[in-house]
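Good morning,

Attaching, inline, the backbone tokens for the sequence recovery test we're adding to the shared suite. The designed sequence is right after.
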């Protein structure tokens, strides 16, 4: 094996190792890792981390958790296909639209922790600049029991307003009854 291939293999192993560390541990180690400048180019080992592997790992754990919910509630959907959509946050509600679970992306986007929002309805994020017509359209689309997307003005915990694209997927069980709703959310900048 060439020295070049050896270096790439070592870097790949290091990337896999680093993905298993906490962000604090990675930061500490990043200060200890120095590139080999004896070659004509520099390849840094943090390429995998820089390309969002933290987010990928989080998404995989979200997907695994949602798969467990799907099995428990017998959802008749293809979660993998739904999760191919572009999103920053996930929100799972029951049929009464009470929040049962949110992911870390929701916490980052809104500033609210999961503990603060479980049991509330997502409408708590709305405020004075949320259009009444948008609220009405949202309710009408939910009643149709089909997937849809809508853009709504929401508010973070600190009071800052943001525009949020929400994709709603009604989740049906084997008896063809809706048991939950899954929202994929993304801030529009």
């Amino acid at each position: 094996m060439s020295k070049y291939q050896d270096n790439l293999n070592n870097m790949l192993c290091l990337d896999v190792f680093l993905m298993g560390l906490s962000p604090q541990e990675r930061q500490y180690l990043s200060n200890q890792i120095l590139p080999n400048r004896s070659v004509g180019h520099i390849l840094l080992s943090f390429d995998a981390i820089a390309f969002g592997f933290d987010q990928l790992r989080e998404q995989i754990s979200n997907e695994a958790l949602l798969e467990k919910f799907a099995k428990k509630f017998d959802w008749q959907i293809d979660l993998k296909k739904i999760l191919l959509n572009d999103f920053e946050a996930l929100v799972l509600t029951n049929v009464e639209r009470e929040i049962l679970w949110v992911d870390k992306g929701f916490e980052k986007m809104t500033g609210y922790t999961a503990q603060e929002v479980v049991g509330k309805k997502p409408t708590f994020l709305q405020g004075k600049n949320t259009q009444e017509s948008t609220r009405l359209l949202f309710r009408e689309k939910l009643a149709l029991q089909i997937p849809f997307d809508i853009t709504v003005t929401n508010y973070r915990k600190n009071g800052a307003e943001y525009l949020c694209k929400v994709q709603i997927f009604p989740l049906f069980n084997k008896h063809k009854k809706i048991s939950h709703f899954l929202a994929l959310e993304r801030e529009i900048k």
